[in-house]
Amino acid sequence: MIIFKSISWKNFLSTGNSPNKVLLNKSPTTLVIGKNGEGKSTILDALCFSLFGKPFRNINKGQLVNSINQKGCVVEIEFEIGARQYKIIRGIKPNIFEIYLNGEMINQDAASRDYQKVLEQQILKLNYKTFTQVVILGSASFVPFMQLSSLQRREVIEDILDIRIFSTMNTLLKEKINETKDEISKAEAEIATAKTQVDSQTQLIKAITEAKAESINNILSKISANNAEILQAEGEIQLIISEIDTLKTSINDKEVVNEDIEKAKSIKSKLLQKIETCEGHTEFFNEHDVCPSCDQNIPEEHKSKIVEDLNSKLLEQNTKIGELETILSNLNQKLSTITEIQSKITDKNIELSTRNSTVTLLNKQVKEMQAEVESTKTDTTNIDEEKRKLKDLAKSAMEKITTKTTLQEQRNLEEVASILLKDTGIKTAIIREYLPAMNKLINKYLQAMDAYIHFELDESFNEIVKSRHRDDFTYASFSEGEKMRIDLSILFTWRQIAKMKNSVNTNLLLLDEIFDSSLDTAGTDYFLNLMNQFGENTNIFVISHKGDQLFDKFRSVIKFEKRNDFSLIATS
Predict the structure, then answer these.
(1) 8-state DSSP, 506
(2) Lowest mean pLDDT among 17-21, 364-368, 371-375, 406-410
(3) Do the beta carbons of residue 208 and residue 383 sit within 8 Å?
(4) pLDDT tens for residues 528-563?
(5) Which listed site, 21, 162, 260, 280, has its alpha carbon 20 to 30 Å from 48?
(6) In the Cβ-directed half-sphere of 25, how many Cα atoms lie within 13 Å?
(7) 1-125+504-572 is classed in which CATH architecture?
(8) 48-57, 130-139, 508-517 — which one is most confidently predicted on average?
């Protein structure tokens, strides 16, 4: 059972920043009064908004925020289910949606829509439509049970009788039926594929048997061709070896040539150093007339003789370098020729290696092919393996046929289950069991309010109504006062059935202005008498303009007033 304990709201509709709070389980009967527009019906909107994210009346969500303060709209509701204490905080500007269990907020990783599903399906276990049918009877946007569509009526009854699970099961079963259908189609396709594979395997075995002899002949032809290539390659190998020997003989003096080149380079280096020294001395005497060591003048005759000797030495050294350059050129030319011959030897070695590899490969292939011929002649493993595969394919095909048979049997069971889970199946059987009790309670409450109407619902929740001197009436045929008595009787019946089932059972009942329009004085008295029979575990709130006439009928009174354009609870 859901025990609603309190609700508070601020900056919600006409309420300002000072919150209004109502204790929902304080008194068995509470009268809520106030003038038009002073906020007495706000409690209905606050309840629905806190639990379902939308108001009871037809108000846009953006209009719920107080038009003066324009922010900080927050509604908090506290309730308990058994030993679990819940608090829900919901707000606009900023948007807030928090659910607390025993003081700790429930994981909020999921999207807001999923978070609402957790609240409705796992905690409250009722939706907005059922809540407004069992907890609230209002004069604003409330749609009486008899004015709901057939589908909506069924949803309410299924929630009250706690049989919505069969609808969920039916939805899941439809998905399962589609899955089974797909699996059967898949099995049929696999069976067709398996049959094709068996036929193909049979043809393969026949082809392998016929091709065995032809394969041996082809291998023998390849062996013969390989042997011819081997003979040709071996002749080419001998010719290449002879050519390599001849080339190697022609370059036996390679080391001597390299040594001569190094000696010539060394002599050249020394000659160049001597030339550099002579040129330096010559430059000195040409540019200086005074000895830098003793600061004495150098005689011109002496300087000329020294320069003449230096030039003579330079000429001699340059002559030797010229001769040496000729020697080096001849040696380099000879080395270049040796290098070219070495390159030819390398090419020949590569060619020789290639021929040897070819012979090795061909010999290996011949050996393998000879072994293959012998193996092919004596070995029937390949055919035996293909026959084993054929056996496995046939076995797999039989398993797929068995799977299809099992799936067809499963589909038959699912179709039977589908018939049971349809609206005309188990649910109708359960509803049929409860219908007499429902109709009995409806008529009991009608009689308690002095309404001489015999009212029944059929299995489709259409009414069968008989009234004194008026047979075969419909709900729409009655006056507004009579309709209100019917609506109240149905509301009380749903609460009683819910209490019996302990499904949508709650302490709270809110009635908005039912005394102010449709119920006459007699109807009001009958209802008040009926209201006092609900017991201490039910907390009834009646919103009315007829405060003066009803004060003494209620245990407590809440009065709403407007002060400085904000709604406040004046007395509680």
Answers:
(1) B
(2) 371-375
(3) yes
(4) 666 666 666 788 888 887 666 677 778 889 999 988
(5) 162
(6) 12
(7) 3-Layer(aba) Sandwich (3.40)
(8) 48-57
Instruction: Examine domains 1-125+504-572 and 196-388 and report if their fold is the same.
Output: no
Q: Which run of H or of E encompasses 470? A: strand 470-473
Domain ranges in the chain?
1-125+504-572, 196-388
Contact (Cβ atoms closer than 8 angstroms) between residue 233 and residue 359 = yes
Instruction: Using the predicted structure, report yes or no on whether residue 93 has a pLDDT greater than 90.
Output: yes
Q: How confident is the model at residue 234 (pLDDT cuts 50, 70, 90)?
A: confident
Confidence category of residue 527, pLDDT binned at 50, 70, 90: low
Token couple for 335:
């080395």
| pLDDT above 60: residue 304 | yes
SS3 content of the chain, % helix, strand, coil (to 5): 60, 15, 20
Q: What is the dihedral of CA 382, 384, 390, 391, to 10 degrees?
A: -150
User: Quick one: pLDDT band at residue 330, thresholds 50, 70, 90?
Assistant: confident
Distance CA 97, CA 442 (A): 38
DSSP symbol at 32: E
More confident residue, 139 or 154: 154
Contacts of 526 (CB under 8 A, 6+ apart): 448, 449, 450
Q: Is the pLDDT of residue 143 over 80?
A: no
CA distance 397 to 393: 6
The bridge status of strand 73-81 relative to strand 84-92 is antiparallel
Bridging pattern class, strands 73-81 and 29-33: unpaired
Coil, strand or helix: which one is 435? helix
Task: Please determine, looking at this structure, whether the domain spanning 196-388 carries the CATH number 1.10.540.10.
Answer: no
Count the Cβ atoms, other than its own, within 10 Å of residue 116. 18
Nearest to 158 by CA among 422, 464, 479: 422
